Amino acid sequence: MDFSYWGSICLAVFITLWLTDRRRFLNGYFLIAGLLCFVVAVWQWLEITQAPWMQALLLVVSLALTGIIPVALALFALACVLYSHRLIRHAGSNPGYVLLEMVGFIIWGMLLLTLLNSLLFHSQFIWLILGLLFIWIGYFMIGFLSYGLASLLDELPILYSVDFIVILGAGLLADGTVSKILQRRLDKGIAIYQQQLKRGAHPQFVVSGGQGADEIMPESQAMRNYLEKKGIASTQIIQESTSTSTYENLRFSEIIMTKIKIFHRAIFVTNSFHVFRAGVIAKRLNTTMSGVSASTSMNYLPFAAFREYLALFMMFKWINAIILGGITVVYLIYGLFIY
């Protein structure tokens, strides 16, 4: 099989999909598939090379991968357990968070059972079950990688003029000032605003966020205060003060912008871990809004990324269930009746 050909096809599809709409979950999958195909193609090319040093290099790489993959899985399992506990402490018990912890313990159990079956049991049935479990874990990890790549692609700059810059709300501090996460969103929005002025555009800010039970004012009011302190004219700021979720942030903001200008071009600003899921929601609302990433501190990013991917996984739970069910049926038919 010519993997370079299929890699080129996958990358071409990825580029087409991303240029037409960067909010598709499939974008990351096609990028991963294309890169993997090229890796396999290079590996095949190296294998047919007769040079002794090349054969030795391939052997070393094969042995290294044999050792690295189990270690990587064990570390991934540890991350699942640690971050599920942190998620539960931060946001309370949630089926998705419990599922994440279960994934971690299952991976550890799989690695232990693989070792025991290799040394003691030598059971074909155990190999069959382990193979299925590894496929499920691989599906979860590829999805997480796809989410990560799609989020990174939203780091690219906006090269066109916009009418509105929507800032999605986040929590406030006890004194009513913006949190560090929200400050980064606002600072990114200001940077984009300044870039737009240089292009000759004069976009308005839409600050979106209601008042939480533990907040002394609506998030939108705190955001307005911050922007005005940074020199943004009050006439350039529009408040949306009733939303309580990302879905409502985007929906209510879109309604406001449409009333002001029916045919408009808008972007929303949120943190890097959140931008892709917010984009998916914007797409479901039939808006044309694309997201722009604000930076996130590295000590918070893994925790937030796990939470976001779980939310994405649950958004597409029925699609994921159908795909995993189909993979399971095909695998079991092959393992029980063909292999």
TrEMBL record:
This protein's record includes keyword Amino-acid biosynthesis: no
Pfam families for the chain: DUF218
Membrane-crossing segments per the record: 5-20, 26-46, 58-84, 96-116, 125-146, 158-178, 318-338
Keyword Membrane among record annotations: yes
GO cellular component labels: plasma membrane
Residues annotated as domain DUF218: 163-311
Keywords in alphabetical order: Membrane, Transmembrane, Transmembrane helix
An individual GO BP term: peptidoglycan metabolic process
The protein's name in its UniProt record: Uncharacterized SAM-binding protein YcdF, DUF218 family
